[in-house]
Design brief:
By secondary structure, the protein is mainly alpha-helical. Helix content is 54%, strand content 6%. Strand 2 and strand 3 (169-170) form a beta hairpin. Helix 2 crosses helix 3 (24-31), helix 12 packs antiparallel against helix 13 (293-327) and helix 14 packs across helix 17 (373-380). It is globular and about 75 Å long.
């Protein structure tokens, strides 16, 4: 059980031993049954592996959650401990809420699996926009991603967004950008927030597209360049086409004034209106034949230079943010709310207050002590 718990957490022998302040040889003795850890040491290991302590005493290894389909590019990095933990955490939340909804005879969501990759991506995109009541390029604020999340959760899609498990376990966006669980009762999408808002929005809509074709799985390297590349899974290419059509619909794009392409600053302004990066916008207009390859290269070169400057400013901003976090930091309950999903948090709190879920279960699902529930709930309405 100890070996299974460590290996399923993708944790090395050295790191696991360090977590309980013992030698690797001592850890190996425990795993080989030659010796046993103390109760305190076993509890520390269970915490490090993010497994219930009682699980270590089961007579045989339990059946774990089934691995999600891996749609990532061939040769992608092996999932690390942090990726394994976030996938497992979301699967636990999703399994719980799906079972609750099924037992309550809630209606299945009609859009899960409504289409397949044989359908026209523009039709799938139009259906997503209609279902969620989203109007591209006519967002009510300068945060399109927030509007998309609110619309998704209003329609029963749970959206989790974070960039870390805890301070020592960060999520690598090169390893995993997002994933989707296409369940008809309780669909979940996860977005790695270790990036600025435009790439996050593209990832969010990409994962929502996965739901519309009922294709649960992991994604990374989500961008418009992979649409016609043989290196990538057909599902990923299809979902990117859907995303491009949803965020930058043909009808709107074809109606753009040609003055938009006069320079990178104008491109940036219009791209921001769509909630996408200048690069994604340029790829889209090139694919639609609105600009020539020569114009694309000139604008892309200008955009690349501006992006390099943007990265420099972002590095400065993050450095200041880290300094501020040391002095106080962002509200931990807001971070927890985004990680849990606002909709999921509200459902669990309502069930807890109604006496339908035990305090220890609610606390486990929300990663929050019961006496701190009011602080967590207060963030929902901000």
């Amino acid at each position: 059980m100890l070996r299974w718990a460590r290996e399923s957490a993708r944790m090395s022998e050295e790191l696991a031993a360090a977590r309980v302040s013992v030698s690797v040889s001592k850890l190996m003795e425990w795993e080989e049954g030659l010796n046993q850890p103390t109760i305190r040491q076993a509890q520390a290991l269970a915490k490090a592996y993010r497994r219930p302590f009682a699980l270590l005493f089961l007579p045989e290894i339990p059946r774990d959650f089934q691995p999600l389909q891996d749609y990532r590019k061939k040769g992608a990095k092996e999932l690390s401990t942090s990726s394994v933990f976030i996938i497992r955490e979301i699967q636990q939340k999703q399994a719980w809420i799906s079972e609750v909804y099924a037992e309550s005879h809630e209606q299945k969501l009609p859009f899960i699996g409504r289409f397949s990759i044989q359908d026209d991506p523009s039709i799938v995109a139009a259906d997503i926009l209609k279902t969620l009541n989203i109007k591209p390029a006519a967002y009510r604020s300068d945060q399109p991603i927030k509007e998309w999340i609110d619309a998704a959760e209003s329609n029963g899609i749970f959206v989790s967004r974070t960039s870390f498990i805890h301070s020592r376990l960060k999520l690598d966006s090169n390893e995993i950008q997002g994933f989707a669980i296409a369940d008809p009762y309780a669909p979940f999408v996860f977005v790695n927030s270790d990036d600025w808002n435009a790439p996050q929005l593209f990832t969010l809509v990409h994962e929502i597209a996965h739901l519309w074709i009922a294709a649960s799985g992991l994604s990374n390297e989500i961008n418009l360049e992979i649409i016609n590349s043989q290196k990538y899974h057909p599902v990923e290419q299809f979902c990117n086409q859907v995303t491009a059509n949803a965020l930058m619909p043909n009808k709107i794009m074809l109606g753009l004034d040609q003055r938009v392409f006069s320079g990178s600053s104008e491109v940036f302004r219009v791209a921001r209106k769509f909630g996408v990066s200048s690069f994604a916008f340029l790829i889209r207009v090139l694919n639609l034949g609105l600009i020539s390859n020569a114009t694309y290269r000139v604008l892309k070169n200008e955009a690349d230079n501006e992006y390099a400057e943007f990265l420099r400013r972002e590095a400065e901003r993050k450095a200041k943010q880290k300094l501020a976090e040391k002095k106080g930091g962002p509200n931990p309950y807001l971070l927890r709310l985004n990680k849990n999903s606002r909709l999921f948090t509200q459902v669990v709190l309502d069930a807890f207050k109604g006496g339908f879920v035990e305090p220890n279960i609610a606390s486990f699902l929300l990663n929050t002590p019961v006496n701190n529930f009011p602080k967590l709930e207060a963030q929902i309405y901000k």
